[in-house]
Amino acid sequence: MTIIITGSVATGKSIIAKKLAKELKHKYLDVNKLIIKEKLREKYSKKLESYPVDIKKLNKSLIKKIKENKKIIIDSHLSHYLPKKYVDLCIVTICDIKELKKRLKKRKYSEKKIKENLETE
Questions:
Q1: Which of 2, 4, 54, 75 could form a disulfide with 79 if both were Cys (CB 3.0 to 4.6 A apart)?
Q2: Nearest Cα to 120, choosing from 92, 90, 89?
Q3: Which H or E run includes 58?
Q4: How far apart are CA 27 and CA 20, in angstroms?
Q5: CB-CB contact of 100 with 117 (8 Å)
Q6: How far apart are CA 20 and CA 101, in angstroms?
């Protein structure tokens, strides 16, 4: 079963994905690590305060991983871009706004980035 865990930054995706992968005996895939390993991101954008990702290339890579192992938990705020025919279950994480703000401050996000992520949530 292919499961994707998606949601805003700092809403608990990784914690849930890792626990679920262990419980179901599925492979856990951290998409952030995959993006770096396979060089799927562009140069750092000061305006966005992040590294833009080529979604088409990312999906191609994820589909390859799914075909290699259908028992996989995919952890990423970008995983919802995968075509639904490759996904058996999608879990969307959410978080209380006050708690999310604390988490983002703890990660030392800029005020602009915190505001952007809170609006997204």
A1: 4
A2: 92
A3: helix 55-68
A4: 10
A5: yes
A6: 25
**Residues 6+ away with beta carbon under 8 Å from 104:** 9, 10, 113, 114, 117, 118
pLDDT digits (tens, 9 = 90+) for 88-119: 999 999 999 999 999 999 999 999 999 999 99
3-class DSSP state of 5: strand
- Which of helix, strand or coil describes residue 41? strand
d(CA 112, CA 8): 15
What band does 51 get if pLDDT is binned at 50, 70 and 90?
very high
SS (H, E, C) 66-113: HHHCCCEEEECCCHHHCCHHHCCEEEEECCCHHHHHHHHHHCCCCHHH
Q: Rounded to whole angstroms, how far apart are CA atoms 33 and 15?
A: 16
Let me know how long the chain is: 121
